[in-house]
Design goal:
By secondary structure, this protein is mainly alpha-helical. The protein has a single domain, classed as Ribosomal Protein S7 (Orthogonal Bundle). Helix content is about 55%, strand content about 10%. Strands 1-2 form a two-stranded antiparallel ribbon. The chain is globular, with a radius of gyration of 18 Å. About 25% of the residues are buried.
């Protein structure tokens, strides 16, 4: 690597919950620079979650669901002697959160509810209960890493 590593930008916490995690999620959710719309979708989704689960706050449900879909290991391709191997690697903390967010948003966009806030609240609740498409993607990633554990000595 020739250039120096990019500095980590500090995100401002969101106005309602005071959580930088929600701001980061909204930045991933946002399309075409429409941040206010993304915040409205997120807050409405969290309100829907709060209506369905009474005993804990919607922020705690969101954090737990994000933790449930974040992978611990992933496979990376490495070419050795003409063959390409899928080598399991542990995931860095910031990448873990980033992958979890992207998987959750992607799964929410593919759901069959009518509006995006309903789709997102449904996916958050599914991930909280350890089910749904995003959680399945995490399980598949872990299964693939487990299957390729034999090649872990090639790790660089």
């Amino acid at each position: 690597m020739r250039k120096k590593k990019a500095k980590k930008r500090i995100l401002l916490p969101d106005p309602r919950f005071g959580s930088a995690l929600i701001t980061r999620f909204v930045n991933n959710l946002m399309l075409d620079g429409r941040k206010n719309t993304a915040f409205k979708v997120m807050y409405t989704a969290l309100e829907n979650v709060a209506e369905k689960i009474e005993d804990v706050t919607s922020l705690e449900v969101f954090e737990k669901s994000l933790e449930n879909v974040s992978p611990h290991v992933e496979v990376r391709s490495r070419r050795i002697g003409g063959a390409t191997f899928q080598i399991p690697h542990p995931v860095r903390e910031d990448r873990k959160v980033s992958l979890g967010m992207k998987w959750m948003i992607g799964a929410a966009r593919k759901r069959n509810e009518k509006t995006m806030d309903q789709k997102l609240s449904g996916e958050i609740l599914a991930a909280y209960k350890e089910e749904g498409t995003a959680y399945k993607k995490k399980q598949d990633t872990h299964r693939m890493a487990e299957a390729n554990k034999a090649f872990s000595h090639f790790r660089f």
